[in-house]
Design goal:
The complex is a heterodimer of chains A (326) and B (261). Chain A is an all-alpha fold and 326 residues long. Helices cover 71% and strands 1% of the residues of chain A. With 261 residues, chain B is of the alpha/beta class. Chain B has a domain at 10-104 and 174-256: Rossmann fold (3-Layer(aba) Sandwich), CATH 3.40.50.300. Chain B has helices at residues 48-54, 85-91, 107-117, 125-135, 139-142, 155-167, 185-198, 211-217, 240-245, 250-256, and strands at residues 10-19, 22-32, 37-41, 65-73, 76-77, 92-95, 173-177, 203-207, 220-225, 233-239. In chain B, a hairpin with a 2-residue loop joins strand 1 and strand 2. Classes of the chains: A mainly alpha (326), B alpha/beta (261). The interface between A and B is medium-sized, with 24 and 31 residues.
Amino acid sequence: MSQSQTKPQRRKLSAGPLSRGDKWFFRTTSAAAHFAFVLVALVLGFLLFQAWPVLQSQGVNFVLGSTWDPDSDPMVLQLGPMLWGSLLIAVLGILIATPMAISMAYLIVFMLPKRWASVATTLIDLLAALPSVVLGLWGLLVFTPIAAGWAEILNKYLGFIPLFQVTDPENGFMRSPFIAGWIVAVMIVPIITSVTREIFSQLDRDLINGALALGGSRLSTFRRVIMPTASSGVVGGVLLGLGRAVGETVAIFYVLNLSMEINWMNLVEPHGGAVASWILARFGEASPLEKQGLMAAGLVLFILTLIVNYIANVIVNRAQPWRKNQ
Amino acid sequence: MNLVKTTSTLSAENISVWFGERQVLENVNLVFPANKVTALIGPSGCGKSTFLRTLNRMHELIPGAGLAGSVYLNGEDIYADGMDAVSVRIKVGMVFQKPNPFPTMSIRDNILSGLKLSGRKIENAEELVETSLRRASIWNEVKDRLGDQAISLSGGQQQRLCIARSLAMNPEVLLMDEPCSALDPGSTRRIEETISELSETMAIVIVTHNMQQAQRVSDQTAFFLADENTPGGVVEFGSTEQIFNGPIDPRTNDYVNGHFG
């Protein structure tokens, strides 16, 4: 067959939805997606609108200062100790929960027989379904007395470390960031566990077998092959947990003594802060103006979560140069 | 490079294997002399890969796995009480069907990974890396980018890297489980060349589905077969020449001539 010498005429190809059904499918899904965006924008807009007067009148001290006096004139609303407390408790919760969750996930995926693994998975998922108010009450009634004992021991033997110092041991060790951190840890362990379990079970078994075949022990295989390969996913799970920890409200409200006196790092000192719990604590009796201040607190909490997530993302990407090759 | 010819011999005596209640192998007896390549051939599901895994105690990692019989490495039973599985795996290296370099490590670190994993001291790291990569015939391709991630290599290069990684442990025996089944013909040929070079210094056991490959690389061949609902076993074991050109058992004859499989 002879080859034609004419210049090829490029045809128009349809890249859009093909059938009527596809068109409607496309319209429905995009409407739903847009609705979600609109919802977020509306919430943000509302928060900004409500918060703006307070943010304007309080300035940068809204996040840095540590006085909350809605009765003075002019009103002084400063959130510093609560913001710092939220971070402190979230970080402590993550530090407690992450090793627990990773161990749990390792046990479920690599050690337990199938039947027991599914029992353990169900139990942990049940923990995730626990309403936080229930957890808060349990924390108040059952856990606090126990953990206060731990805190006392920490203070007694490790009291030379600022983390475990208290101003007055006679105050007891209840209602401290230490206890709130534990409660938050209990809440986020299921999240981190289920993400980590998923990541572990998706690891290529031949990688693990390869490591064992090279003379690796379970521990060295875990350290050098499983964790490095799974780390980005695990950090993703930790981030999810961090989001929940920063925003946790009711459970912390029950177990923490909220105080505007800033507690930088004395974990077992019986007072601390948490933005969301502060909003809950104040909202009922707040004047309309103070309510605006609490809205501003909500906005700041939202931004704080975004910043934390962003930083963590940067860290993950920097720690995983090999992923660029994929 | 000063490599002493090993005289080690691996031998399997009366190996039977179970997964849970199901027996998959019965009374396998094979000898793998030093400096010889042994091919294990047979249809899928006949237990040859399972058998291979009993030779470096990878088999026991599967939950519910059971074993009878003994595997002797230089006269020592590797399943004896007090014998450490890790030390066995260091002496008996393994290359898997699918290339499995560690994705988080560089080419160089992949070579050193066995030493790190088994907690050994690394002396002359650079020399070891070069020697191992040279023995796996991949040095020239990667010598300028040892710091690159291992997964940036092509599939065939990755497999040769995995071979080099095993060689860094200086094994006495190298087990290969269909090492070329995921590779293109060019990469396959290069790995086969590597196999014949390596056989001068160690015993090699290779599972393969490829009859031509078995004929090209091996000195002796064992034909595995499992009849329906019975455990697998060795039908015939002999020199590769004999198995392919003058098999005694008619089933071997049928298989090597492509009548089933």
